[in-house]
Structure formats: C-alpha cells, structure tokens
Automatic annotation (TrEMBL):
NCBIfam families: matE. One of its GO terms (biological process) is xenobiotic detoxification by transmembrane export across the plasma membrane. This is Protein DETOXIFICATION. The keyword Glycoprotein does not apply. It comes from Kalanchoe fedtschenkoi. GO terms for cellular component: membrane. One of its GO terms (molecular function) is antiporter activity.
Length: 480
C-alpha cells in the first residue's frame, strides 16, 4: 500500500481521496510510515548522544579531575543549554510539519531562518552561563577543584552552543519533510570521525582536555555543515529557496511559540537530572549517587528510543493536520502509542530480569551494585512511563499545544512530584527510593493527564486550527 500522504505536482492527497481499507491493513501501513521516521531518528539521537559520551570516556582516561570536568560540563552547563536550544527549536516541528502537510513547501526555509535568528539570539543570552559557570557550580555544591576545571572546559565549549542554535532548526526542517535518513548518514559519519580523532587528539598526541574540546566542537559543527550542504545543494525539493528578509518578519509570534516549546521540553529534560542533585543532599550520599547515576545512564540510552518516537509522531500529526486529515492524525497517535509502550514493556522486563547483573557492568563495588539492584524497580517503572510520555509530548508539539503541556509539566513535576520526593526521601527517611518514588508520581500524573487530553481531543477542530495557523504564517491549504 502506498503512503496516502503523497505530493503529486505539489498537491497533498487528502483523506477523502483515499479509499477505506481494513483496520489491519491500515495499521500495517501506519506502522511502516512510523518506522521509516522513528528508526533513523532513534539512530540519529544515539549517534549524537554518543559524541559527548565518547568524549567523556576518553577524558576519563586522563584522570579523575578531567573526567569530572567533562561530565559536569556535559550534564549541567551544556545540558541546560541543550534543553533550551532543543526546546525553542521544537516550535519548528509544529509550523514546518503543518506547512509541509498543507503543501506550503517554500515556507519551510523561511521558518528555519526565523528560528535561526531566535536561537542565535538565545545562544548569546546563554553565554554568561558558560562564562560564570565556576561560580554557578560552586553555588549548587560542587567542589572548587571540579568547578574551576569544568568552568574552564565550558569556556572552550562555547562554539558548541552556537552549533546547537543552528542544528536544531535544521533538524526540524528536515524532519518535517521526512528526510530523516539524511540526518542519520551525517551523524554516523561524524561519529566515526569523532571517535578516531578524539583518540588521536586526547590520548595519542596528548592534547588532553583541549583536544577533547576541539573535537567535540568540531564534530557538532561538522553535523551542521553536512546537513546545510545537503539543503543548499539539493534545495530540499523546493523547501529551500535561499536566504530571505522574511526571516525577520513576525518574529514575536515565533518567539512566543518557541518559548512555550522551550518551557515544555526543558521542564521534562531537567526533571530527572534534578533527581541526582537532590540525592546528593542525603546523608552519606556517595553510594546512592553512584547507584542512581548508573540508573540514569541506562535511562539516558533508553530515552534515545523515546526521542525517536517523539520526532516520528510529531511529524505524522503535524503533516496530517496540515493536510486536513484529522482522522489519520488520530490513528497515527494510537499506532505509535501501542508500538512505543510495547517496546517499553520489553525493556522493563529486561531491566527487572537483569537487576542483579547489569550493575556490575558499571561498578566493581558490591555496595553500589546492591543499591543499584534496589533501585531497578524504580528504573523499570520509569522506562515504562517514559515509553508513552514522550510520545504524548510529541503529539502536543505536532498539534501546537506546547503552552498547555508547559502548565501541566509545572504542576505535575514541580508542584507535585518534586515536593513529594523531597518529603518521602527526607521527612519520612526513605532516602533515594522515596525521592525517586515521589518524582515518579509526578511523571505518572503528567502521563495520565496527557492521555485524557489526547483522548478528548477534537481532531477535526485541530485540523481547522492547523489550517488557520498555516494561513497566518504563509498561505492557505491548497484545495485544488
């Protein structure tokens, strides 16, 4: 069966033009479209996640201070900037996806340029975070030695910040057109280059952290350059028509949607990171922090799968709503939810089955391994919830609900989950299990609210709103 959302002479085939088929055939067709998007998106996320992980691994061979400097810069300074840039860039998923579905291909390039303007300005605003990072790190409790080393490394990593500002709009631009294999090829090539030259610069030639910074910056800029070369050379099937002064029009509307996206995703992105910080406030925190760091490491890899499905459903929903195909958008949500949860159940079972084994892949300490085994149940539940929650967030991005989900996240995560974790962990003396348990309650509540919100959605009205949005930003849906 052919994809019902096809361009023919610039026209998007609508749902009423495609004959109805059986549920099984429709499910297979939708699943095929899903994996064509999610598969490359998952691999791309893993490759880009691996850039920082490889740098951290090589830096760990230099010494404990070097490892701590890179780890803290990656997780705290660059992690915060990554969340902001990714969040603000996600506004493009709504606009580009719906414009593409509506057949307004030319506007995608203009949208990307507007996002570049906003994200580059945001990157400039984040520069003080890097410049004053030693003081910030000391303020949140890091030692002077680690804070100074991480702060020095953060200054060297400023070029990466501006690579983020260009990269995320480019990726949303390509994702909206379902050109995810382009991103995959570029990311795989850069990862291979990064692995070889990081070993050469950091260890073989002895450049240490300077070499680590040079290669990590260079790798992120290679990703940007590789993707831009594809766009400039191929014109991306008409989506790129050159630089335009239109990029500076209607910026305030873009800023509002970008800020809503940033708040929504940053609140999710930082939530489990806070778990490690809060755990560090326990009495005798070394073993609990080591154990929860192992769990968060595994959860980070699992999150790459969720990010792939998040991107896939965002594209599917925005494309179908932009084309006026409300029922296809609804059906896509159901298929991706079932698929992602099924994978989450499998991973949850694997975590529980190997709870006495996997800790020793990361530590030689019996005490740390025992504590990690105790936390395996919480990790398993987190994996299961995070198999659905990012999918529902992707639906929100595709439909343009970022501001609603931002309020939901504030309430569930920071008014319910985090305080509950602190009370259970410290007041009731349940330690790290209480902290994580309370925060899991926040994730569970947020997931439940998003399920209800999605279930009650009037998809026909969402398609009409998408049409209004496309008219506002670049013209009406073609009806010929």
């Amino acid at each position: 069966m052919e994809d019902p959302l096809l361009e023919e002479n610039g026209h998007i085939v609508r749902e009423d033009e495609v004959e109805e088929v059986g549920l099984l055939a429709k499910s297979k067709a939708e699943s095929k479209r899903l994996w064509k998007l999610a598969g490359p998106a998952i691999c791309t996320a893993i490759c880009q996640y691996s850039l920082g992980a490889l740098t951290q691994t090589f830096s760990g061979l230099l010494g404990e201070v070097e490892l701590a400097a890179v780890a803290v810069e990656n997780s705290v300074i660059a992690g915060l900037a990554y969340g902001v840039m990714l969040g603000m860039g996600s506004a493009l998923e709504t606009l580009c996806g719906q414009a593409y579905g509506a057949g307004r291909i030319r506007m995608l390039g203009v949208y990307m340029q507007r996002s570049w303007v906003i994200l580059l300005a945001s990157a400039c605003c984040l520069v003080p975070l890097y410049v004053f990072s030693p003081s910030i790190l000391k303020l949140i409790g890091e030692t002077d030695e680690i804070s100074d080393a991480a702060g020095k490394f953060a200054l060297w990593m400023l070029p990466q910040l501006f690579a983020y500002a260009l990269n995320f709009p480019i990726q949303k631009f390509l994702q909206a057109q379902r050109k995810v294999t382009v991103m995959l090829y570029v990311s795989v090539a850069v990862l291979l280059i990064h692995a070889v030259f990081s070993w050469l610069f950091i260890l073989k030639l002895g450049y240490g952290l300077v070499g680590a910074a040079v290669m990590l910056n260079a790798s992120w800029w290679l990703i940007v350059i590789g993707q831009l070369m594809y766009i400039f050379i191929t014109k991306s099937d008409g989506a790129w028509s050159g630089f335009s002064w239109l990029a500076f029009c209607d910026l305030w509307g873009f800023v509002k949607l970008s800020l809503a996206s940033a708040v929504m995703l940053c609140l999710e992105f930082w939530y489990l990171m806070i778990l490690i910080v809060v755990t560090g406030r326990l009495k005798n925190p070394l073993i609990p922090v080591d154990a929860i760091s192992i769990c968060m490491n595994l959860q980070g890899w699992d999150a790459m799968i969720a990010i792939g499905f998040n991107a896939a459903i965002s594209v599917r929903v925005s494309n179908e709503l932009g084309a006026g195909n409300s029922q296809r958008a609804n059906f896509a949500v159901k298929i991706v939810s079932v698929t992602s949860v099924s994978i989450g159940v499998v991973i949850m079972i694997v975590v529980l089955a190997t709870r006495d084994i996997f800790p020793y892949l990361f530590t030689t300490s019996d005490a740390v391994a025992k504590e990690t085994t105790k936390l395996a149940t919480f990790l398993a539940i987190t994996v299961l919830l995070n198999s659905l929650q990012p999918v529902l967030s992707g639906v929100a991005v595709g439909a343009g609900w970022q501001h609603i989900v931002a309020y939901v996240n504030i309430g569930c995560y920071y008014i319910v989950g985090l305080p509950a974790g602190i009370v259970l962990g410290f007041t009731f003396g349940l330690g790290v299990e209480g902290i994580w348990g309370g925060m899991l309650g926040g994730i569970g509540l947020q997931t439940l609210i998003l399920i209800v919100l999605t279930s009650l959605t009037n998809w026909r009205r969402e398609a009409d709103q998408a049409e209004s949005r496309v008219k506002k930003w670049g013209g009406s849906i073609s009806t010929d």
